[in-house]
């Protein structure tokens, strides 16, 4: 039984990986967290408190628990979180038991030429460069946008609530550009299924692309309007507006805890990414082709299941 550690396994994406790993019943799972464990260990799952600043202590813990593969799902939002992941990569490289590492990424293919659009791409590039220089085998997981956002609050998900482009609850949309940019999307649980299957591959490509569906905002809007039988109140932010950061926030779930300026910053960033086509993912290296038995949910199915009825579903 291989031991898989999930760093940030208490967060949105990390929890999903832990749940799917546990369901397989073929791995020992180690959940790495900065805090004291809040959950009881089980026969196959251990919750381990770690100090991301102490590389040698982390190396010892990885060896003590015989961790073979690390899936990082640390929320990479700052220099501090990026440094934690870089230290974990260093510890994994030093650990005699650890051979493989999946960095926290789970988005589009982040390259240096996109830094002007999104400076935080540097965190992902730093991790990829350190992995390249290490003796670890790694793969960068690219699922596009998480589909979960358009099924909230009904869809089963561990992600924090947020509205991007179309807020189905309020029947309002603030769409970037002309709404025809292609966006590849994957439901978090489908991504986790693919990645857990990829753990058994003998070799990993640099990029593991997973695509649940390929849609545009206009298509999502048309599907949602059809399912609900209602026309939405829609505005489009032009390219000039987006470039100036003068964007429209769609209505947000309540109690997010962000200021209007912070919301606008996120909307402007994601709008720039969408209109630059970053979510139109390459056809190469798709795990979909390697694992045809996984049937990822499409956007239409997710919308149908989330909005044709009101009770929680996708259990
Ligand atoms: N493509 C998409 O649509 C999409 C959407 C959401 C997220 N993502 C990506 O998925 C990844 C995970 O995101 P998430 O939303 O799941 O993250 P999250 O829930 O915000 O955070 C995950 C975990 O990171 C750990 N963490 C926080 N600060 C840390 C620090 N300084 N050092 C080490 N660990 C720290 C925390 O675990 P402990 O407190 O237990 O240590 C937390 O539970 C990110 O790379 C994000 O960009 C992609």
Automatic annotation (TrEMBL):
<keyword id="KW-0560">Oxidoreductase</keyword>
<feature type="domain" description="NmrA-like">
    <location>
        <begin position="3"/>
        <end position="237"/>
    </location>
</feature>
<dbReference type="Pfam" id="PF05368">
    <property type="entry name" value="NmrA"/>
</dbReference>
<keyword id="KW-0521">NADP</keyword>
<comment type="similarity">
    <text>Belongs to the NmrA-type oxidoreductase family. Isoflavone reductase subfamily.</text>
</comment>
<dbReference type="InterPro" id="IPR051609">
    <property type="entry name" value="NmrA/Isoflavone_reductase-like"/>
</dbReference>
<dbReference type="InterPro" id="IPR036291">
    <property type="entry name" value="NAD(P)-bd_dom_sf"/>
</dbReference>
<dbReference type="GO" id="GO:0016491">
    <property type="term" value="F:oxidoreductase activity"/>
</dbReference>
<dbReference type="InterPro" id="IPR008030">
    <property type="entry name" value="NmrA-like"/>
</dbReference>
<protein>
    <recommendedName>
        <fullName>NmrA-like domain-containing protein</fullName>
    </recommendedName>
</protein>
